[in-house]
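Reading a protein record of the kind used here takes only a little practice. Think of the row as the fold of the chain written in a discrete alphabet. With that in mind, consider the following protein and its fold in token form:
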Amino acid sequence: MSNELLKKLLSTHFLHFKQVGDDDWRDPNESNPSLSLSSRGYFDHRTYVCGSLLKLAKAYHLSGLQNFKEIPPRTLAQKIWAVSQLARDSNTEAYKLVNAYLTKSRKIPLDAYRDLLNIGMIRVNQYKDEKMIVYPSLSVIDAQHAFNKCYYEVKRIQRIFINEDGSKKYKKHLGTQNGEAVGFVIPPLENTNEKSAIVVEGIEDALSIRLSNPGAWYFVATDKNGLRTIEQYFHKDKFLSVLIIADHDIEENPAVTGQAFSWRLGQRLKASGIEKVQVLMPAVPKNDANLALQEGRFSDWKNSLIEVPELFQISETGTNKIEVISEENSLRIIKASDVEIRPIKWLWSGVLALGKLIILSGEPGLGKSQVSLFVASVVSKGGYWPVTNEKIKSGNVLILSAEDGAQDTIIPRLEALGANLDNIHIICAVPIENGKERSFDLTLDVEKLQKSSERISNVKLIIVDPISAYLGKTDSHRNSDVRSALTPVSDFAEASGACLLCVTHLNKGGQGTSAMNRVTGSIAFVAASRASYVVTKDPDDADMRLMLPLKNNLAKDINGFAYRIEEKDIHKNNELIKTSFVTWEPNFITLTAEEVLSGQSRSSNRKIAEDILIQELGGRGAIPCKQLYQKAEDQGISKKVLWSAAKRLNVKVDKGGFNDG
């Protein structure tokens, strides 16, 4: 039917048109013809709009059209693209919206995208009250048609929903790939014949880079899933070099990160015969080209790109069972059998894990900050941990401290501990405009923390003291707010491999309040942490302090530690500085946090537990644990307290174990 209509048009109003390519008829007498015709439709060179042949025939009042029916757009994406507004004219609202987002909000110069507005590759649409910028992801053949100014189809679009001030609300894809390559293609700004291409995931990154590489073609995959098929665009005769700039994603499984997908794309392009293929990525997570452009450090960013680390160099065969779905309302699923297990890495064995959030809580004046600085000193110099005398390799430390001054408190205490001060870095403030500064905020500044950590390198410990001082406007008593605030920094700790040690206070509590609920603020603080410890007084020694486990998801939480706070005089610049530091007792502590914080001393719950064991086990041989648990429960004694008493009395446990029954 479409071929018949094309013949009808070419035999009437467009009789002078000549075939200039496969399925492409134009006016040979015009250097810039107004129309291109094909069996698929027409392309208007003046407006860069495509349309159906029937629509064109009706516009020219052709007769005999009653047997032809209008074919609706094949996809919703095609329909939206067809009615979206061009943004070529600077006086239109469409142009102003694109400029507000790309230039005013994203700091991308107009010269980096003006040509795309002129050829209609970036448009604007409005649905109800929502305004959006729209650009197409085209198949290889449709991209060729589009840049040859022929009729082309749009199977997938990317929509950027925009706020009134030009900032982004969110992005949404519409349409499917159906296994073929689709991407947003950006032609060179300058015809240098260099045969080079650059592949990125986002349009903002492509436009941010474009002016610095004006002779390259740019291919925007729009997401990491698009990297799977985009190599269909590349041929060794068309491109001599390809640069793939991967996103630095943070995922539990490295095989499904953008950098892993990019590395695999690079391997496939090398295998296809392209001479030079390079895959680079930012050293810091989420540090993309456009962010660097906005912050005025694009040149430094470009020079700081690194090759994809070995962790993410995972072949197709290693991931062929992993299903990654990027469509809306879908899930990313991985089989448990395909997950590569990894051991937990420890900063302090069984106590502080690398890459994890740890909470250290306690009442004021008991030495929480002293303990955190002790940990910092051990890390800074590669020292020894208490009781076990385990030695560790040295590393760098970042400290956020809102309550203690660096000059008169933190540094003197570190010196008293013999810390290597060259490896300890104190975060003071966040510079803002006009030479001013503001306080660090974990809800805003995690990316800055990432960059600082990467620049310093080998950061093994980050201390936040107290955590509540760095949560901005977060309501620390609302579980959802606390979880949202802690998630980005927890993800950063996981990705960087640094132990995140957060100090907080205890509330007064009431009778019957559990030790875990004594931590100030939402229970989400303890829930989000992988281990949590409490600092408290020893009930039998006024000068002794105890560090006891509240929870430990990564190791047994049986033993605690005891320490004292000692005074020390430091002579500096002919001045006497009085400071203090912690010294640790040589043995583990078997008291529990529940015992101590409930106000029950060794003469109460501990004594009761010991009496139960002596009475039940004395001269009677082995007894099932369940029986002992029941006896203890009848007298208000927990299993944990009973276990601690058993250790003190050197109770022997049979092969089944004390915890069995």
Observations:
- The CA atoms of residues 8 and 62 lie 9 Å apart.
- The radius of gyration is 33 Å.
- The chain has four domains: 2-59, 77-318, 346-534, 602-648.
